[in-house]
User: Fold these one by one.
Assistant:
Number 1:
Amino acid sequence: MESKTATKILDVAQDIVRNRGYSAFSYADIAEEVGIRKASIHYHFASKDNLVRSLVKRYRKNMGRDCAWIAASSTRFDVQLMQFTGLYRHGLDKNQICLCAMLSADFAVLPEATQAEIQLFFQEAEAWLVELLQKGCNAGLWECSSSVQVEAKGLIALLQGAQLIARSSNNPFETFDQIIEPLLGAKFSMEF
């Protein structure tokens, strides 16, 4: 169980990394925002690499929880797909993108253990989406032009790319929707 201070450190670090990336933050940035000394951060997370690995583990766990909630919230394929899309839309108001997408830009300089956590995040998100898209294909609601695995990879890439482009626009939500809606609509076998 994390202490309140460790949770606050992770919350602040997540916001910073989702906005700036791995290389553009330090313990000083976190300490200033949390209102503690850098030594206090080292007490909870011995190194930046340890902090980021813990951050990715927590983010991966939260994504799994969010996907489980989506699966339980509705049986309708279109509702579930839009809720999944919403996970990527979320954060644009704070100029943030997916933590693992942001960290992937620095993938080569990250420790192997953190790289493995990022890969696991993408594998789990893709596996969940494969299952959802397969349901859509089986019900005749989603048009799979290749395999559902390829479709899932492409959809995750689309969502992350839309985040990047939307982030640099004057109206991020409108831009994100303008990218996503026509492409998703073309894949639906029903009105989007």
Number 2:
Amino acid sequence: MASSNLTSVTEFIFLGLSSRPELQVWLFLLFLMIYLMILLGNLIIVLLIAMSTSLHTPMYFFITNLSIIEVCYTSCVLPQMLGHFFAKRKSISYVCCVTQVYSFLSFGIAECYILSVMAYDRYIAIRDPLRYSVTMNRSVCAGLVFLSWMGGFVGSMVATVATFQLSFYRDNVINHFLCEMPSLFLLSCTDTSRAELTSQVICIFTLVCPVIFITFSYAHIIKIVLRIRSAQGRRKSFSTCSSHLLVVILFFVTVMSLYMRPKSLYSPEKDKIVTVFYVAFTPILNPFIYSLRNKEVKIALMKFLGKTRDT
């Protein structure tokens, strides 16, 4: 801890996911397996899409970016978390904490926007399939992805600056396994109202607005699909959207329950569970929910495996 009330902290100490020594090995093995599966699943998706010309479509271009984001933002947390399972002193320097908050938020916000873009892509594909390739051309797709990434970087910069303008003098113990804004607000010895307001404004633009946009997109999609006369046509249209909708629900519900709940409902232990869910379990499900169950991806995977065996 800081040596006096007039000395700013130079590092933070995590209490970690669990303080029970007998669980550390099992938790390490569990999260190591999860992290390796996240890396393997998402990298396989990226490679398959890059190598298969049949997957060079706007939808899979967005899925590629989603997979890259998943790898990046889990890598901001899980490697450090794995190392701390066996560390007697779970510390992180002030500079590394700033870096973790910025990078973690950058990729998280970018994912919110990418999921919104994917909802728009599905809406265009179902509303006007004959003009889909013209409307969602390469320059449009690249522009939407660029804006999503830039939105993540800018939004994260604003949130990080607002958070670390606070002063941390007396306490440097974080009851968590990563540096996250709600936990840091509790440690500050200065007024956090401005930082919390900034955080809420950013949440409106990065969580509430995307959710509203996605909801309206799917409302229009459902109206269009219900007009399709054949049951097979309706099933095919719904199947192209169901995977994306499931990913959206899993991601946004968990993130919003953490960043948009009243301060009076703060619970360190519950927050750890929620964070584990969207940091580890949602990313591990995405490749299977969104890609590996798709017929086109399965065909590309079989072709890739066939080429590998031939060589």
Number 3:
Amino acid sequence: MPAKDIILIGAPVDSGKDRRGCLMGPDAYRTAGIAEALADLGHRVSDRGNLSPPPTVPAPGMPPHVHAPAETAAWTAALMTAAQATMQDGLPIFLGGDHSLSLGSVAGVAAHAALTKRPQFVLWLDAHSDYHTPQSTASGNLHGTPIGYVTGRAGFHGFPPMADPIPEQNICLLGLRSVDAAERAALEQTNIRRHDMREIDERGISSPLSEFLDHVAAQNGALHVSLDVDFLDPSVAPAVGTTVPGGATIREAHLVMEMICDSGLMTSLDLVELNPFLDERGRTAQVMVDLAASALGRRVFDRPTHAHI
């Protein structure tokens, strides 16, 4: 892979759900050596530190059960601005932080893609579809709403307008295994590509991914990849507050990232939902760093071995 300018952006977002701990994620990735791992692959890596949200006040119209909507809206605005600006300088990696950070990161990269006249695509590696709106979510946790927001669903009162919504057919949800009835009914009315773990068991993980990557390439698209810790099986990545058994294996996850690397299509990346408070001696942070390295050129023959004892 040719050397890239990679910009690390810490997003210690912890407002998208009521279980605390994801604010420690960015520094856990740094401690696990993400900058060094990517620099060892020949990339030029810069770390711009952690973002912080501006002060804000709640907007009227938001359901009362929604957790910390004003704080999440402020994070969305900050991340949208940072993402759009950083895309001009290289490939940003957003170090999360819970998955509500993707409301801003995806919106920002989509705005940049619109300016450059390229279609924006999103690969969502997650156990959940995250297609709720603030009105439809029973939990009130906004980390379950990014796909709803970036496709232009209504109800995000107080959030920046989604000026460049992602076309439904430009989104691929891979690894699904926890989708509630309301989300399922809404998704069935869309053209969003969605692949659950049963399909992956039956077809393998490479087939649906290859089909999507071929579509992105044919459209000369910009590809944003959003990797949630819970895409992985909790036996290999326990540091997440939304564990769902039956996730991707380490080998399947590395294959996904290696295929993304081979495609040369990825233009931005989220690493989200790492809660170091729930980790086992940094095990999950290291797995996520290794997966990021696979997406950016590391291969089996030069992958280091880590002891987790």
Number 4:
Amino acid sequence: MSRPNWTSPAELRAELEKRWQRGQILAEALADSGLFPLRIVLKQPSTVQISDDFAAARAWVESWQTADGGHFAIEWREIMHRSLGRNRLPAAVVFATAADTASYLRKTRELARFVELAQALPVEFSGLRDWLRKYPLRVLEHAEPWPKLLAVVTWIVDHPRPGIYLRQLSLPGVDTKFIEQHKKLLSEWLDLLLPEMAIDSRFNGLSGFERRYGFLAKPQLIRFRLLDSRLTIAGLTDLSVTVDEFAKLNLPVTRVFVTENDVNGLAFPDVAGGMVIFGRGYGFDALARVAWLQDKEIHYWGDIDTHGFAILNQFRRHFPRTRPLLMDEATLFAHRSQWVEESSPINAELAHLSADEAALYDALRDNCYGRGVRLEQEYVGFALLSERLAALHSASASVEGVQP
């Protein structure tokens, strides 16, 4: 005989544990939403089930008679059975308060701690009350650093857009590492507490924290190699400089190569009037600020996969005349043995690709060559790179030769 589908005391506890994990019980301690008194209806045996297995039904009733009733009240329902007479069945349990429920779950200490942390909020931080009700379990997760978190937020609210490095923030027990570890939470709070004019909405996420709230950020660096010994800077060919410094260089190069793979950048052959910039995936905002690059002949070398063409597409939004390097079907099929599977291909429409580029992108996206075909740029033979560079040089020399 299958187990009767009647609510047991263990199932009641499991249901309340779910409500606790959803934060319902804790949130009720801050604001009465009407959840309490909390009435939970019990699934109980029917008169047919009582007749079929009276012993099981009686054991079920006794399990509720001996249940931990000190924290809840039981509503009973009387039934009349034609052969068994009058019987009382538990119909529902009622918890009067959040405190009763927490005590039943043996979480009285957690509830008290949550209330204590909520009461520690300064009066002027009333804007966080809704956040506390929405994320009560996160409050408990941050119980230990709570005073430091409040201290950091208080300082920033009192000094909006301070124009200093996080390292310069002097608060007892608070260092840069502490802020780095709690940027997500601090950002949520600051968005609720700071006036709109104190938040630069162009920056988001953990990496944008400093710029979003007016701190000085670690300068972005651009690494590049000069591929022509005549263009060295104080004898140096491999340099990393800030974006602002790079924008001022206005180097007398004629041809610029951008490659995502560092080893490719290091091993890139000499090119008269050339330089190679070490790319960083989708992050081209820094290069877009370098006006003198707009007049250069730019070649982008990325992986032959959907993301590689998406990055080329994004790069071309900043530099419309960019040409791809070794990102064509001939290169792909010349390295068939080096193909791997792209783990998470994209399926976006890319508006800044040429017809040939778009056709190759579509073929990769639609798995025309196989599932998730990908050729990483580091597997492209350098002999082929040398051939392409020689062809570029010849084409350039030919154009120059016919000029008047």
